[in-house]
Amino acid sequence: MTPLWWMILALAVTSYALKATGTLLVGSMRMPAPLERCIALIPAAVLSALVVKDALSDGRVLVLDERAVGIAVALVLVARRAPLVVVIAGAAAVTAGVRALGA
Amino acid sequence: MSHPVGAGPGARDPEVRRVVTGSLALSTAVGIFGFSFGVLAVGAGASVAQALVLSLAVFTGASQFSAMSVVGAGGSVVTAWAGAALLAVRNLVYGVAMAGPLREMGGGSLRRVVAAHFVIDETTGLALAERDPRLRRLAFWTTAVALFGLWNAGTVLGALVGTAVDPRAWGLDVAFPAAFVAMLPPHLRTRHGRWAAALGALICVVAIPLAPVGVPVILAVTAILVGVRP
């Protein structure tokens, strides 16, 4: 098996384990409030970090290129409550356009 | 699923129709999202089969996107797994919230073992929005079945299309972060959420030049500590 297959297998097991722990084991037990608040904040912290990584870096160094323009478009579209597909298509189209002009 | 949708006298019940329509509309949107995942996953180096297994067996969108985004950027599979696993921790919270309702829905422990796989943002949100246990069960299972089907169908179609196009020429490398931007607003409603997002981004900016690919995203999770105090 390739490393990517191992990662997929590990993630599948982790994902089910997390869903099932809450559903089957923890049951009606309540978690401490500060812990519950912190867990609820994971998506906010991780998603915004992923935006930085994917739009403003090549993974190793910070890079400002046509993707920044695409993300600016995505931010405007999200602020205007555009549907997800429109956000993705709009950002991709603008990035591709700027890239084609620059090439 | 001993109470099939649209069968019996319940089908004419406007409440039933409202719940089913809501589930199907949301599932359709998620199916299109699954299409984007398929395109992006193969663009980031997955095969069509790998993209499909991610959607079938991992079945939690943000984690799948995150994992392939790290792999695509050249990060190690360990950091790809860790970032995606952290994003999946919120399903544990949904599971805790759904444990009581799922027990009330009946069907024994075997059905709960199956139901656990479907405890994600959308099913939890729509199920807990209903107070009537009958409508709650309907909302959970209609969303679970429709969303799972359309998410996977979308993934396969997207993966097949993705193998046929050059991702950079179509600007698809921006589709990952654009999707993450679109997923953010519900998490920014609270002051804590906004602080965690800002701090997470800042930690990532600082860590990118210093840490290996994928690690900055994991370090950014420390931003959740803003939630320790109410």
Write the layout of secondary structure elements.
The complex is a heterodimer of chains A (103) and B (230).
Chain A: H1 3-26, H2 33-40, H3 42-56, H4 66-79, H5 84-102
Chain B: H1 14-43, H2 48-58, H3 61-72, H4 77-105, H5 108-117, H6 121-128, H7 133-162, H8 175-183, H9 191-207, H10 215-219
Helix pairs in contact in B: 1-2, 1-3, 1-7, 2-7, 3-4, 4-7, 6-7
Q: What's the multimeric state?
A: heterodimer
Terminal-residue CA separation of chain A: 39 Å
**Main sheet of chain B, how many strands, which sense, barrel?**
none
Number of domains of chain B: 2
Largest sheet of chain A: none
Specify the number of helices of chain A.
5
The number of E-state strands of chain A comes to 0
**Rg value of chain B:** 19 Å
Low-confidence stretches of chain A: none
Taking all residues together, what is the mean pLDDT of chain B? 88
How many helices of chain B? 10
Secondary structure tally: strands of chain B: 0
Report the principal-axis shape of chain A. extended
Portion of residues in helices of chain A? over 70%
Could you describe the 3D structure shown?
The complex is a heterodimer of chains A (103) and B (230). The relative contact order of chain A is 0.06. Chain A has five helices and no strands. In chain A, α4 runs antiparallel to α5. Chain A is mainly alpha-helical and 103 residues long. Chain B has two domains: 167 residues, no CATH class; 41 residues. The longest helix of chain B is centred in the N-terminal third of the chain and has 30 residues. The termini of chain B are far apart. The N terminus of chain B is likely disordered. Chain B is built from ten helices and no strands. By secondary structure, chain B is mainly α. The interface between A and B is large, with 75 and 104 residues.
